Amino acid sequence: MYLEIKNLSVHYDTAQVLNKVNLSVEKGELVSLVGPNGAGKTTLLRTISGLVNWEKETLKGTKLGRITIDGEVIFDGERIDTTRAHKIAAKGLVLCPERGKPFREMTIKENLMAGSYLYRDKTDIKQNLEKVYSLFPVLKERETQISGTISGGERTMLAIGRALMSQARLMLVDEPSTGLSPLLRDELFKRLEEIHGQGLTILLVEQDVGYAFEIATRNYVISNGHIVGEGTAKELLADEMIRKAYLGL
Question: What is the 3-state secondary structure (H, E, C) of 155-201?
């Protein structure tokens, strides 16, 4: 497995956010993780990418709370659950956070170039930038615009573009459809399909089951920190209990 999560649990003080989660992604797959708000989807991505571990270290010795993490996160054969977030990103496992979270005071192009900070080959950087602009022409059109002034859809495109600039091998995409119109959602998911078709492995967290199931190879369903279902879209939609209780269909 390219990414393997084994018995992963996360507690914030006494609140258990993830409870013995097991999940895997093979190289070249596009796997979705769906579930209601508060199910633990974002926490799982933040834990995989090292941000919860960073938060744990940051809060150590303060009165803001205690975070505990148990279990294993394995990427490309190597355990990374105690690895610092920037080193995980350097390995090619890159998080595209919900709503993009750009460096708001920087331009679109400066944000994209920030994604390539680990690379010194100017030819590669130029080629990656051209690839991003071909996928998202609006980013090229507005490359000098300050990122704090762009729309939600553009922020999501920018986050994906920044991950591509970093030469991501596995991209974690968190709720890309949040706040987008149906037209923009359609366009964004087409671009994700295109990126996946070019060989990039993707773990997609999405609340809109229809969009996720349409493009994913396999799917996981999470509720209250537990994985409650796994399978293809056809298999999960055929399970009446999962469909009604967890997917709201």
Answer: HHHHHHHHHHHCCCCEEEEECCCCCCCHHHHHHHHHHHHHHHHCCCE
pTM of the model: 0.91
Cβ(100)–Cβ(150) below 8 Å? no
Q: Look up residue 235 and give its amino acid.
A: E
Note the pLDDT of residue 243.
Answer: 86
The CATH code of the domain that includes 150 is: 3.40.50.300
One-character DSSP codes across 97-125: -TT----TTSBHHHHHHHTTTT---HHHH
Its domain, for residue 32, covers 3-245
For the ranges 3-7, 155-159, 180-184, the maximum mean pLDDT occurs at 3-7
5 by DSSP, 3-state: which?
Answer: strand
What's the pLDDT at 126? 86
Q: Which token pair is 48?
A: 């995989």
pLDDT tens-digit series, residues 107-135 = 999 999 888 876 666 668 888 899 999 99
Count of domains in the chain? 1
User: What are the distances in angstroms from CA 109 to CA 22, 45, 65, 136, 237?
Assistant: 38, 26, 38, 12, 42
